[in-house]
Amino acid sequence: MRAEYEFQGGSRGAILPAGSGKTRITIRIDEDVLAWFRAGVEDAGGGSYQAAINAALREHVQRAREPLEATLRRVIREEMASYRAG
After folding, report:
1. Among 7, 23, 30, 51, which has the minimal tally of Cβ within 10 Å of its Cβ?
2. Is residue 71 a contact partner of residue 63, using CB atoms and an 8 Å limit?
3. CA 86/CA 64 separation, integer angstroms
4. 48 near 41, Cβ under 8 Å?
């Protein structure tokens, strides 16, 4: 390790900029929820737990926008599939 470092031309912030359409925020998440996402990513062989959280939020938003008829059809299909499997 050097005794001194030169930071004259340096800049603060992320080394790689976030992709377009992305916004950096600070959010507080319960430890057990964060642990679940991290474990899921680890079990899948690696990746980004932040991307997994974003995907879960996106799915929730899409389902919240789903019309009632589509929701009922999806639920009935899921129930029928579990009835057939059981």
Report:
1. 23
2. yes
3. 29
4. yes
Residue 20 forms part of a structural domain: no
Rounded to whole angstroms, the Cα distance separating 56 from 38 reads: 13
Q: Is residue 57 part of a domain?
A: yes
For the stretch 23-57, pLDDT in tens is 888 999 999 999 999 999 999 999 999 999 999 99
Q: Which two tokens stand for residue 70?
A: 């589509």
Q: How far apart are CA 40 and CA 56, in angstroms?
A: 12
Query: What's the predicted TM-score (pTM) here?
Result: 0.60
Q: What is the mean pLDDT of the chain?
A: 89
Range of the domain at 37: 31-85
DSSP state, residue 15: S
